[in-house]
Fold this protein.
Amino acid sequence: MPETATAAIDPDLVARIGAWARELGFQQVGIADLDLKEAGARLREWLDRGFHGTMDWMARHGELRARPDLLVPGTVSAICVRMDYRPANTRMIAQLRDGEKAYVSRYALGRDYHKIMRTRLATLAERIAAAAGCAVIQRPFVDSAPVLEKPLAARAGLGWIGKNTLLLNRGAGSWFFLGELITSVRLPPAIDLIDDACGKCRACLSICPTQAFPEPYVLDARRCISYLTIEHPGPIPVALRAAMGNRVFGCDDCQIVCPWNRFAKPTDEAAFRPRHGLADAELATLAQWTEAEFLDRTAGSPIRRIGHERWLRNLAVGLGNAPTTAPVLAALARCRDQGSELVREHADWALARHASGRGKVSVER
């Protein structure tokens, strides 16, 4: 049986990997070793503080996240890539200010990035295996396994982890997805790592609607709108609902205000273009979707994973923060009459909010 590759087979392989990655639609590629001890220690501290909320799977796989070589035995290097995703002209601030609109995080307006990037990383793996000329252990990841993606990407020279806990890049901001190919081919890791360039800026910390950053570089997921609207399965805490405004799937505020995102470039990827009018949809319109319509219109979308019940739950909160209009009240009545107990509880909260005259929340920028 051929020997598994444990050293660089071709001195030009790194350059060839970079060319293949760009050909496959990735905007940047870097190489990292698998030493994540420091990141693993930070993760353990974060878990000990309970900031993961109901994401128990993060605690279950805590140790594996810092040891990719245990997750995929025999691997020694990580090929890290990024792919831009922000569509052009999505009027983010204008939509956030319009209380009748539904704000969907920009990453979820198009098709699900997981399959797109994983398929392309698999193609990259095939080319590397062919170039190696021997048995190679490889596995692609796109937010799909217990791997500390941002620390790996930072070690690969793709950027630094900012105060909002996202990976930031001087030339691309943070509007990009990350992916990794863990391999047994020993490749030279990045030498020039990117220094933290956040400086004294606190824009991302200050803008957070629910104040989810207890300190710079630390996110309390339990207060994060992305967590509350996507990962959290139960009732959204009443104390946080008003601050959520019209954000019904995810939140981009800390990216919108980040100065480095002035340099972000719109994506050319057709798959990430907005579908079904989600970049400018009204809350009342989306609340009319039946479960069948929800499943049909979110096919191939990241939104589908939350299911129709959570979708209506989120919309009910958004409708509770909307101006008091006939379409808004009618949409809430439908949610209450046709939804589950979880949806009804949020619809009741929203209707009571309108009855008290507190239905509109302004979003100052």
